[in-house]
């Protein structure tokens, strides 16, 4: 029997979301999606903030936004939704300096929520997270090309920063070393989470397409992309999916009325016992009241049409299922 593994885009629990959550239950941030999230056998997100009450806003270089959530409610919210793993290689995990980064790692560890892409040293940031879901062993690795100032090194905390370029020798060597460590865990499924590219980009550049395909050729099974704040099309390369950008899942951001960064999907992967992704279900989502909800019929129709249009360039087609879409990856 296939297991259902959920992937989301950016989960930003700071600022107005954090303020709103002081007066409502932790699980309220998941709105009408809570039951759907909990029905997944496994759930992996990009956590786009630090979890701490300590630290001062990063001032070493210019940063216009700083995202931090109170771990007292945020950890409970992650637990209520059944989050198994968090990608931390992004441009906000050091927003409140090293103290808050370390608190984030400690809070997730205490809650037994796996994480990858950030660590107390570069080696730790590069370590794969390994999660057992039923009989399935999932390895989860995370990289970013955002904010080089946040990069970890041999002695300092930070992110797993790389250039997202398949022709870059340093990148190739780093990724291949990480994948070798990952293979040593004998995983059934390898998910690589990439926080790549600028905000509000409508499609991936050619270099990202080449990098994503190279990763799959190197043994990765699923590319879980994010960073643009808007979802991109899906490509299937040699039977494996590249989710170039999964958009925003929950946040307090201003809404672009053309790109609709408040709309995306919960991406549900059906994974067979041998670790093959056989199908992806796209459940339309919509952000309102600083929480994520099932999309309204109009918003769902907009997201379906846009996903189909964006995916046409990759020759990817979907079937309709209720308000959502289904992508079959073959038998």
TrEMBL record:
SMART domains: PGA_cap
Superkingdom of source: Archaea
Gene3D superfamilies assigned: 3.60.21.10
Domain called Capsule synthesis protein CapA: residue spans: 4-253
A Pfam family hit: PGA_cap
Family to which the UniProt record says this protein belongs: Belongs to the CapA family.
Protein name: Poly-gamma-glutamate synthesis protein (Capsule biosynthesis protein)
């Amino acid at each position: 029997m296939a297991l259902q593994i959920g992937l989301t885009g950016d989960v930003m629990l700071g600022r107005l979301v954090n303020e709103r959550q002081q007066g409502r239950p932790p699980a309220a941030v998941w709105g009408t999606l809570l039951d759907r999230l909990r029905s997944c056998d496994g759930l992996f997100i990009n956590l786009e903030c630090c979890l701490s009450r300590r630290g001062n806003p990063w001032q070493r270089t210019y940063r216009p936004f700083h995202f931090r959530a109170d771990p007292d409610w945020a950890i409970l919210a992650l637990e209520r939704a059944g989050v198994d793993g968090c990608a931390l290689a992004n441009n906000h995990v050091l927003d409140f300096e090293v103290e808050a980064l370390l608190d984030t790692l400690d809070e997730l560890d205490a809650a037994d929520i796996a994480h990858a892409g950030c660590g107390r040293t570069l080696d730790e940031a590069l370590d794969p997270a390994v999660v057992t879901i039923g009989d399935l062993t999932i390895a989860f690795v995370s990289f970013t090309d955002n904010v080089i100032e946040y990069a970890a090194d041999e002695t300092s905390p930070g992110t797993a920063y790389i250039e997202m370029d398949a022709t870059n020798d340093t990148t190739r060597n780093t990724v291949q070393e990480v994948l070798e460590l990952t293979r040593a865990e004998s995983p059934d499924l390898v998910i690589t989470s990439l926080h790549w590219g600028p905000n509000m980009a409508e499609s991936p550049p050619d270099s990202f397409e080449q990098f994503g395909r190279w990763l799959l050729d190197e043994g990765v099974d699923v590319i879980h992309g994010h960073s643009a704040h808007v979802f991109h099309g899906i490509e299937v390369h040699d039977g494996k999916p590249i989710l170039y950008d999964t958009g925003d899942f929950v946040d307090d951001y201003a809404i672009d009325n053309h790109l609709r960064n408040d709309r995306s999907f919960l991406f549900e992967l059906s994974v067979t016992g041998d670790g093959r992704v056989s199908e992806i279900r796209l459940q339309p989502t919509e952000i309102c009241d600083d929480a994520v909800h099932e999309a309204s019929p109009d918003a769902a129709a907009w997201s379906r049409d846009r996903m189909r249009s964006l995916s046409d360039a990759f020759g990817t087609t979907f079937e309709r299922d209720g308000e959502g879409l289904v992508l079959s990856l073959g038998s």
